[in-house]
UniProtKB/TrEMBL annotation:
This is Condensation domain-containing protein. It comes from Streptomyces avidinii. It comes from the Bacteria. Residues 48-386 form the Condensation domain. Pfam families: Condensation. InterPro entries: CAT-like_dom_sf, Condensation_dom. Signal peptide: none annotated. Gene3D superfamilies: Chloramphenicol acetyltransferase-like domain, Nonribosomal peptide synthetase, condensation domain.
Amino acid sequence: MADPAGFEGALAALPEAKRELARLMLAARQPVPAHPAPRSGAGPVPPTALQCRLWRRERTHPAVATGSHALRLTGPLDPQRLVAALTGVLRRHEALRTRLTVSTSGQPRLHVDEEPVLRLTRADLSGFTPQAAAERVAVQSTESASTVLDLESGRTSAFRLLRLAPDEHVLILASHLAVFDGWSSGVFLTDLAAGYREGPTGPGGSAADPPELQFPDYADWQHRWLAGPDGSAELARRRAVFAADPPAPRAPGGFERGHVPVRLARGPVDAGLELGAAEGATPFMTLLTALAVVLARRQGRTSLVIGTPAAGRFAGPLEGAVGQFTTVVPIRLDLAGGPTFRELLHRTRAAVADALAHQRLPVDVLFGEGTPPPYNVLFALHNYPAVPLDLPGIEVGQLPGPPARHLELYSPDPAAALACIGLVERDGEIGGTAEYNRHAATPEDVRGLLTGIEDVLDRATAAPASPLTT
């Protein structure tokens, strides 16, 4: 076997264009596994399909790929220890040290910077009244969500530490959605807490040791797998499933974001979920089935496609890495033949299982660049693992922030989207926020989808053996 160090040295001696060509040729000769594996070498890799889309869009829409989170920290916080812990998390996860450049051949490439750069601003609000301080925290949170982050420069995160009192702080994180998804929040907080408790080289090691798989490993694998025979064959098979489904129509006015809070009534929903559980359906499957009936009735169709965001961490080692792994899984639902709700539940179970088995395929590649997908409604029942930020002597609480930018993240063409309904089950309630396209829907249209779900579940539990009218 060749000496890896000598091999890397020989590659480094080549001009950049030839070095990249040599890497591609060597990678093409190696079989691509079905799941991501640590990449060989530390050179640049191709970005994912989603990253390419966000990179192109942020050129004309600054801050379109910015997400923001805020935490209230009550207790004797050590700011310097927090700074060291934040820097340690950036050092541990390659995704938070990546930048995108265009190679001499014109192809975008992801580079990983060796050293982390912590961008942290501080503000002392302890001289304000509680009401004035709260107003300034809200302003800072809104500003954070509008922070212009840039994948090309590597400015993909920015922090704000606000001091309200000696034992009261607010930490706000702005992150680029090309490198940070919802699941990453839990990973980030777990590592931040470990780094704060133990230091960067503490006995637990979690704050210092890198995860088994990094996001660039995944990006490199995705590019090679899609170009290989297995990925190409799976892509062809999946495209055939949706060949008869027309692309969603684009709104004449384009895309303009709107948000509306939504909540499901517990009476009919609880009864509907109980009926679904008796048929082996998860709460997501049951609610998705009801939504499919609502959309089929409105569109006068007996088959339709609904998109759902999936975590995309189909390999166990990916669960411990920060990165943007989320993908949209299109689910094709068949309502032909006047099925009962129970029968439709079983169809939905099979359709969801089949769709999730293909979450390795990025939706941008599945339907092609510039082509709207065959769905205009996305539905999610979020189940990210709840991870408390365990800081010694400090009580941690989540602060509400500006609504997320889900449609531009999840939809290859936001102008062809009607709404993204994101629900969370918490404290006995199912609710959340729906993002919609103001040029395609109104708040009343979106709320109508939720009341429609309640009505379908109410009728299904009253007469579970009756055929559905679509």
